[in-house]
Amino acid sequence: MIVPMRKLKEPVTEREFHALVALAIFDSIADYEEVREEEMWRLRKKVFTELQEYYRTELGLRDFSRRLGNLMTCYYNAAEAGHLQRQEYRMYATMFNVLADDQVLSGIFLT
């Protein structure tokens, strides 16, 4: 997530980074059964609402669509890179039987 953020013209603030981390956490736990989908979407909406409020009040931006769009593009690129990395690990694990005895790595990369 850091590499795409460094390519932005405007530096990412600490609060924006925290919002990105929160969204990444929500996406990573979305597959678990014990997390209620309604609660996850409620928290996601809260993150976006607070981020918009931050843009309006603390940064004084009236039109923050470009900044938010750039931030979400960075998030998407980081998430896609994570998915590609997971697929690559699965391929290597299948080809070379790397994770056969390691339960921790099997749980991380093969689920």
Mind explaining what this structure looks like?
- With 111 residues, the protein is mostly helical.
- The protein is 73% helix and 0% strand.
- It contains 5 helices and no strands.
- The chain is elongated and about 55 Å long.
Structural key phrases:
111 residues; mainly alpha; 5 helices; elongated
What's the helix and strand layout?
Elements: H1 2-6, H2 14-29, H3 37-57, H4 65-96, H5 103-109
Helix pairs in contact: 2-3, 2-4
Give a short synopsis of this structure.
The protein is mainly alpha-helical and 111 residues long. It has helices spanning 2-6, 14-29, 37-57, 65-96, 103-109.
| Spatial extent as radius of gyration | 17 Å
Order of helices and strands: HHHHH
Structural class comes to: mainly alpha
What multimeric state do the chains show?
single chain
What's the main sheet like? none
**Helix segment tally:** 5
The residue-averaged pLDDT reads: 78
- Quick one: overall form? elongated
Instruction: Determine the fraction of residues in helical runs and give it as a percent range.
Output: over 70%
- Strand share of the residues? under 5%
Distance between the termini: 22 Å
Counted beta strands: 0
Query: What ranges have pLDDT less than 50 throughout 5 or more consecutive residues?
Result: none
